[in-house]
Specification:
single chain; alpha+beta; Phosphorylase Kinase, domain 1; Transferase(Phosphotransferase), domain 1; four-stranded antiparallel sheet; 9 strands; globular
Length: 176
């Protein structure tokens, strides 16, 4: 908790000034959650996926504002492993092809568990993932909105995942 307080006070972020990720050192970050429900959801799905061998950040736990008697911690935070790598949506060439191949496989496995990845497959491929080219691994992240899906939702996501036109999209040419 001390490392989190210090990072909040000193604004030691991982990805720039307005980043929701605070660098705690020792390959750990604290991700600011919008609500307690989102924090608990992120923790639940992250741990569920991690235990089943998905490439996701290891989640150590939650720090809630009520846990801090000094009142420095003003929102729920998820303490998790730092993910090394580049945002998959910014990749090009062979790195992009490999990252998206792995992304497609992992998202297919997610759907096999009837998990509805709310904001990961409905915009463009590779959203909410990072590719570590040194390890050759695509990590999934940001599960705060995920939930169990009904059969129709899962089938819709599966058809998006298998659609050729979906894989031709990128953040730069996505439909508005």
């Amino acid at each position: 908790m001390q490392a989190l307080r210090y990072s909040i006070l000193e604004n030691i972020t991982l990805d720039g000034e307005n980043s929701p990720l605070l660098d705690l050192g020792s390959r750990r970050v604290a991700k600011r959650a919008i609500t307690t429900k989102n924090a608990r959801n992120e923790q639940m799905w992250g741990r569920f996926l991690y235990k089943r061998g998905f490439w996701v950040p290891k989640i150590w736990g939650l720090v809630m504002p009520e846990d801090d008697p000094e009142g420095i911690i003003d929102a729920p935070y998820i303490v998790m492993q730092t993910l090394e790598g580049e945002d998959t949506t910014h990749l090009t060439g062979r790195s992009r092809e490999e990252a998206l191949r792995q992304y497609k496989l992992q998202m297919g496995r997610v759907l096999n568990f009837n998990i509805y990845p709310v904001d990961s497959l409905d915009r463009f491929p590779g959203r909410n993932s990072r590719f570590n080219s040194m390890r050759g691994i695509t990590y999934l992240h940001d599960f705060e909105s995920w939930r169990k899906g009904n059969p129709r939702e899962i089938e819709r996501m599966r058809s998006i995942l298998n659609s050729k036109s979906f894989w031709e999209l990128s953040p730069q040419n996505k439909p508005s």
